[in-house]
Amino acid sequence: MQQLQQDIIVVGGGGAGLRAAIAAAETSPTLQVALLSKVYPMRSHTVAAEGGAAAVTLEQDSLAAHFQDTVSGSDWLAEQDVVEYFVKHAYQELVQLERWGCPWSRKADGSIQVRRFGGMKTERTWFAADKTGFHILHTLFQTSLKYPTITRFDEYFVIDLLVVEQQIAGVLAICFSTGELVQILGKAVILATGGAGRVFHYNTNGGIVTGDGMALAYRHGVALRDMEFVQYHPTGLPGSGILITEACRGEGGILLNKDGYRYLQDYGLGPETPAGQPKNKYMELGPRDKLSQAFWQQQQRGLTADYHGHAVVYLDLRHLGEAHLASRLPFICELAKSYVNIDPATAPIPIRPAVHYTMGGILTDINCQTSISGLFAVGECASVGLHGANRLGSNSLSELLVFGKVAGEQAAARVQKMSLAPVSAVAAQCQHQQTYISSLFADSCDDTVHAIRTELTLAMEQGCGIYRDNAGLQTCLSTLQALKIRYQQLKVTDNSKAYNSALLQHLELGFGLDVADTICRSALARTESRGAHQRLDEGMTQRNDSDFLKHSLAICQPDGTAAISWQSVTITSLPPAERHYGAKGSGSAGSSV
Amino acid sequence: MNLKKPGSSKPEPGSYQPVMPRNWWLQHRYFQIYMLREATVLPLLFFIGCLLYGLYCLSLGETQWQHWLAFMAQPWVVLLNLLAFSASLFHAKTFFELFPRVMPLAPPGLMIAGQWLATLLVATGLVLLLGGWL
Amino acid sequence: MSKTINIARYNPQTDSRPQLQAFQVESDNSTSVLDALLQVQQQDPSLGFRWSCRMAICGSCGVMVNGIPKLGCKTFLRDYPDELTVSALAHFNVEKDLIVDMQPFLTHLAAVKPYLINDDQSSQPHRQTPAQLAKYQQFANCINCGLCYSACPQFGLNPEFLGPAAITLAQRYNLDSRDAGKTARMPELNSKNGVWGCTFVGFCSEVCPKKVDPAAAVNQGKVASAGDFIISMFKP
Ligand SMILES: Cc1cc2nc3c(=O)[nH]c(=O)nc-3n(C[C@H](O)[C@H](O)[C@H](O)COP(=O)(O)OP(=O)(O)OC[C@H]3O[C@@H](n4cnc5c(N)ncnc54)[C@H](O)[C@@H]3O)c2cc1C
Ligand code: FES
């Protein structure tokens, strides 16, 4: 087994991982920073983000307002000290990116242009045409090339963390091109492996978003927090799930049911705003969970249309005009033309909700530190406490930057005073993994990764979808248990060394099964409705602050299943209140929307 | 940034190194058109040869000049020069279309039209001048 | 309906060169080449290819479809007859099936110093008007898929040639009003493997899935390089 030594190991080359690596390299030019990623960094799913990144920018905006929007959006499950830190540092980070070359869209006078975004009270979302994530990722990747101390390990797949007495000691990875196991020792490890959307069937996430990092930490006893909160995006393309950005609605797009009626006004988001004149927090600019739930209600009432066997509603952009669409939403026009064969200038786009974002993740403190000393987590794989029960669109790209920097700096500060663990301390663990991997191969196997994965994702969609109830969750849980047993018998039949994707998919499926278990059990335990978690059972359809104003923690048991416990929420200045959108939300000051 | 493959101390499994076949340019229509464009230089060479020969003849006197005129009037020479003319038009077309992309000064359509107009003007001017009408 | 997809298979442990293998796939109006490959992978899990976003933005899934470089996720079976052939991107070393070695591409990208170079230290954003942004915006849209390298015979003949994407990226930064690094980038562009390696075949721009027009960028680079040369003649 090849053995390498580094100071800091960053796992993940998306926005969070790259930002952390740069921060670490900038803190001290003597530190060796390894950047591991299972795909080339610019393939990471940050690349797909379209809409934008939030920060208080305009004169009339305030940190307090961004704080309020985020906390109320989270249905009071955000850590308020974390939100305070976040809103304070977001602007600075977006400027940093500007100074690294990000082509932010501009106003005529050359200053930064900001746009509206769902759930945000005023315009504060920076964007780079409709390819914000793409430009952020490429700017970070290209900037990272400046730092000679960052060594990239492209297409290295991390299969385990090396932990010695609750201290991180490094990672174990498979080099995709050779199939060899590589042991990398380090004094700090930053997990930035992204979300877990792919454990669901319909989703906006790319094929690599399989929850690996969450499972890696979870298997070593780190709690996964708030896993029941999974955000559906109201506007994915039917079938593929490809995202049609919220910016379409920000620009004035409207949602219609099969009768051409703007149904959102029936679900507390009205009164109807004139087409093409969007108003923050009203109608189409209400929060995502409400919009996805409205779709579900319409579907129950038989008011959705059918598109090749998928229930859909319509996103109508026609009134915006061809020229406006071409200049503001060119990527969306391209996607609609390619994947549903529709020109948004002349026809409405069929859309349906799809899983988009995992609010929960690896429990960390405000410094991105987990319960294993020296192990940090950041980005979508982490739960630093910003999103609570529901993430506001455009907060997460800013989160990657703000907390990516924190994680990088914290890791750098730690390694100055640490030394590497001796190889002997991790030898047994590495040997164990080596044996495990070898045991996975066989000449034939009746079951397949594809079959188990399909059943897993369908079960999650059924049981842990937009609305949940006890019976559905129990069914889902027993399906998951059956699948886990099948997984243990599953073998890899391709025994080639180089680029063995069958092996990686096998391991990803194992990660996904663990993550799915935590989602399902957390959802069962939370017998109230809050944010993205909506229960249909009697007595559970409302938010219940007296019992559930707290985070769920899923902790791995010896039998591999999750035990759920609870953690209190940090509330600094904004006590829980009702979430209001539409006309109800525009009440007096202090109505905390 | 260290771009060396960190795993490269391990023996890399083999990889297949493709070689460009000699006739690569016959493989797509796109490459064929490209080669055609490059080949426009051949008839143009012939045309330049003719011109130089004409100048040489002129310096030798009236009879040689008449001889050259007769040479130029032969059908195969006319044909080759027509070919050279269309080749240069073809080349000009590809060049004019490229130019606005390399120097985006105005909308491409406008720039292309402008270049053709300029060519036409210069050509007419030259014809008028050499023909003694100016 | 069912279509035949011939895939150039290559296993470095057993094969000396890629060989075609035929598979049947189900295809409807929205089946992409990537969808078809995923179907094949269910029949034969050993098939190797790269993909991630399936929405033409991550740049992973470049392959040759009937000899033309394409993004698998943005190429649809509906546009082909009953049979089509998919092979690894041309001009790169094939590592397994449809997976090529992208390292030369990344090395070339890094060689042009693709980041803002300037020495102002302000903590406020630069001003950049929409017109200044428009100067380079198109060239900033490259997704690093490498299709242009497979379309470029000059890169095929000389792998040291910086190639369309890298030169485009250099041009993207050279044209950025916030950048002052052109002098640092020009030596690489002026070198024998720089802009002058291009003979303007133009196929790179034809195959670019993002309409970045690398051929234009390379030829703008030639103008800049020529300018550099003329200026240097008048310098003592
Ligand atoms: C379609 C879409 C649109 C979005 N739009 C917006 C938006 O407009 N605004 C906004 O704020 N947010 C948006 N989001 C959310 C946001 O983009 C993501 O939350 C964020 O990009 C996640 O970044 P990350 O760095 O945490 O992870 P990713 O970018 O997903 O990167 C994960 C990295 O980890 C690596 N990795 C994973 N597992 C392993 C392993 N086992 N071994 C080695 N490496 C591994 C991967 O290779 C990858 O490099 C959007 C999300 C999607 C899906
Ligand atoms: S899969 Fe991302 S570009 Fe095709």
Automatic annotation (TrEMBL), chain A:
Tell me its EC number(s), please.
Answer: 1.3.5.1
Keyword Ribosomal protein listed = no
Q: How does it sit in the membrane?
A: Peripheral membrane protein
Locate the FAD-dependent oxidoreductase 2 FAD-binding domain: which residues?
7-397
- What's the cofactor? FAD
- What is the annotated localization of this protein? Cell inner membrane
Q: Which SUPFAM superfamilies match?
A: FAD/NAD(P)-binding domain, Succinate dehydrogenase/fumarate reductase flavoprotein C-terminal domain, Succinate dehydrogenase/fumarate reductase flavoprotein, catalytic domain
The Fumarate reductase/succinate dehydrogenase flavoprotein-like C-terminal domain sits at 453-581
Q: Which InterPro entries match?
A: FAD-dep_OxRdtase_2_FAD-bd, FAD/NAD-bd_sf, FRD_SDH_FAD_BS, Fum_R/Succ_DH_flav-like_C_sf, Fum_Rdtase/Succ_DH_flav-like_C, Fum_red_fp, SdhA/FrdA/AprA, Succ_DH/fumarate_Rdtase_cat_sf
One GO cellular component term noted in the UniProt record for this chain: plasma membrane
Its recorded name reads Fumarate reductase flavoprotein subunit
Species the sequence originates in? Arsukibacterium tuosuense
Automatic annotation (TrEMBL), chain B:
Identify the InterPro entries for this entry. Fumarate_red_C (IPR003510), SQR/QFR_C/D (IPR034804)
Q: Which UniProt keywords apply?
A: Cell membrane, Membrane, Transmembrane, Transmembrane helix
> Pfam families under this entry?
Fumarate_red_C
Q: Name one GO cellular component term.
A: membrane
Q: Which SUPFAM superfamilies match?
A: Fumarate reductase respiratory complex transmembrane subunits
Transmembrane helix: is it a keyword of this entry? yes
Residues crossing the lipid bilayer are 39-56, 68-90, 110-133
- Name by which UniProt lists this protein: Fumarate reductase subunit C
From TrEMBL, chain C:
Note one Pfam family from the annotation. Answer: Fer4_8
Q: Where does the 2Fe-2S ferredoxin-type domain start and stop, copy by copy? A: 3-92
A molecular-function term among this protein's GO annotations: electron transfer activity
Reaction(s) catalyzed by this protein? Answer: a menaquinone + succinate = a menaquinol + fumarate
The answer on whether this UniProt entry bears the keyword Repeat reads no
Ordered alphabetically, the record's keywords are:
2Fe-2S, 3Fe-4S, 4Fe-4S, Iron, Iron-sulfur, Metal-binding, Oxidoreductase, Tricarboxylic acid cycle
InterPro entries, alphabetically? Answer: 2Fe-2S_ferredoxin-like_sf, 2Fe-2S_ferredoxin-type, 2Fe2S_fd_BS, 4Fe4S_Fe-S-bd, 4Fe4S_Fe_S_CS, Beta-grasp_dom_sf, Helical_ferredxn, SDH/FRD_Iron-Sulfur
Q: Which cofactor does it need?
A: [4Fe-4S] cluster; [2Fe-2S] cluster; [3Fe-4S] cluster
Pathway(s) the chain acts in: Carbohydrate metabolism; tricarboxylic acid cycle; fumarate from succinate (bacterial route): step 1/1
Note on how the cofactor is bound: Binds 1 [4Fe-4S] cluster. Binds 1 [2Fe-2S] cluster.
Asked whether the UniProt record includes Magnesium among its keywords, one would answer: no
Question: Taking every annotated instance into account, which residue ranges of this chain make up the domain 4Fe-4S ferredoxin-type?
Answer: 132-162
Swiss-Prot/TrEMBL GO biological process terms: respiratory electron transport chain; tricarboxylic acid cycle
Per the UniProt entry, the Enzyme Commission number(s) are 1.3.5.1
Q: Which family does it belong to?
A: Belongs to the succinate dehydrogenase/fumarate reductase iron-sulfur protein family.
Q: What is this protein called?
A: Fumarate reductase iron-sulfur subunit
